[in-house]
Amino acid sequence: MKIGLGQIKYETGKVKKNLKKIQKFIFKAKKEEVDLLVFPELCLTGYSLKNLVSKVAIKLDDPIIESLKEESKDISLVVGLVEESKTYDFYNTALYLEKGEIKHIHRKIYLPNYGIFEEKKYFISGEEVRAFETSYGRMGMLVCADSWHPVLPYILALDGAFIFINVIASYNKGLGKKISTRYAWERLNKFYAQVFSCYVVFVNAVGADGENSFWGGSTVIKPGGRILVKPDYCKEQLATAYIDLKRVRYYKNVLPEFKEEKIDLNIRELKRIKKDKLKNVSFKYINKISKKKILKKKAYLP
User: Fold this and answer.
1) DSSP 8-state secondary structure symbol assigned to residue 173
2) Where in 144-231 does DSSP place strands (E)?
3) N or C: which end of the chain has fewer CB within 10 A?
4) Fold of the domain spanning 2-261
5) CB neighbours of 167 closer than 8 A, spacing ≥ 6?
6) Is 239 helix (H, G, I), strand (E, B) or coil?
7) What is the DSSP string of 43-93?
8) Which residues pair with 140 in a beta bridge?
9) CA-to-CA distance for 117 and 14, rounded, in angstroms?
C-alpha cells in the first residue's frame, strides 16, 4: 500500500479555496499512484474558526462531500471538517472515504480548552472510538488531542487496528516556553508504533493561522518506531511511503507483550477507580453542605 501525506496550508473559513487545494493534491497523488491520501485536522474549513464555525459547517450530504466521495473511487481519502449534524450540533470530524463511500467517521472526543485553544466553546465532543475495515487492513483514526489520552490508542489496538491515522493542527507555540509540542508529538508517535506494533500515520498542517503557525512534521512510522518518511518542517508538501502489514506481523511476534493484555482486569480496575472517584466527589459535596450548615448555625449563636 502506498500512502500519501497531504501536508497543506489551508485558509481559515475559506472552504472553496481549501477544497481546490485538496483536489490539487489528490490529482498529484493519483499521478503518483497513491492508495490512501491523508490530510490534516479541519483541512476543509480551517482551524481557528471561533464564530465562523456555524458558517463553514458542512453536512455529510453536502455537494462538497459528494465530490470527495467521487474522488475516493480512485484513491482513498482522510479529510477533516466542521461537521453539522442533523440536530444542528457541530463536531470536529475526520472522514475516511473509500470506493465512493464514507467508510468511517471519527468525531474528536477530547476538545482542548486551555491557553490559545477554545474548542469546547464551539464543538460537541464525540462519544465513540473504534477500529474499522478498509481495503488495506484494519485502521483506527484519532484527531489531535485524542492521542494525548492513551486509553484511545489502547482501545484501537485492542480492536485490531494495524494502522493508526492521527490528523492534527498543531502550532509552534501554545504550551509555554519549556514545552516543545513538536518534540512531544514525535516521541508520542514513536511510542505508540513501538508499544502497539502498528504503523502510525501522522499529518499536520503548515502555514500561518492568525498569530500562530503550524509546524508540519507529518510522518509515517513503522512498527518498532522507525520513521519511514517525513516531509520538511513548515513546508507544504506531498510525501509518500509504502506500508507492508508483514512488518506488523513480524513485530507482533518478536515483541508479543501486547498479546498478553488482561482486558477483564483492566475493566475491573477502571470500574473500581470510577466508583472510588464518585464516592470521593459525593463525600466532598456532603462535607461542603455540612460545613455550610454548621457556619449558618454559629452565625445565630448569642
Assistant:
1) S
2) 163-167, 199-203, 206-209, 212-215, 219-221, 227-229
3) C
4) Nitrilase/N-carbamoyl-D-aminoacid amidohydrolase (3.60.110)
5) 38, 39, 40, 41, 43, 78, 80, 94, 141, 142, 143, 144, 203
6) strand
7) TTT-S--GGGHHHH-B-TTSHHHHHHHHHTTTSEEEEEEEEEPTTS-EEEE
8) 164
9) 20
Q: How far apart are CA 197 and CA 167, in angstroms?
A: 19
Number of residues written out for the chain? 302
pLDDT in tens, 163-203: 999 999 998 765 555 568 889 999 999 999 999 999 999 99
DSSP letter at 49 equals -
Q: How many Cα neighbours within 13 Å face the side chain of 40?
A: 29
Q: Which pLDDT tens digit goes with each residue over 87-124?
A: 999 999 999 999 999 999 999 999 998 877 889 999 99
What pLDDT digit, counting tens, does each position of 114-157 carry? 877 889 999 999 999 999 999 999 999 999 999 999 999 999 99
Residue 265 has what pLDDT?
95
Closest by CA to 75, choosing from 28, 43, 143, is: 28
Q: Is the pTM of this model over 0.85?
A: yes
CA neighbor of 200 nearest in space, from 256, 156, 249: 156
Asked if 139 and 131 count as a contact pair (C-beta separation under 8 A), the reply is yes
Do 194 and 184 meet the contact criterion of CB atoms below 8 Å apart? no
Give the HSE-up count for residue 52: Cα atoms under 13 Å, Cβ half-sphere: 13
CA distance 235 to 203: 13
Question: Where are the chain's structural domains?
Answer: 2-261, 262-302
Rounded to whole angstroms, how far apart are CA atoms 23 and 17?
A: 10
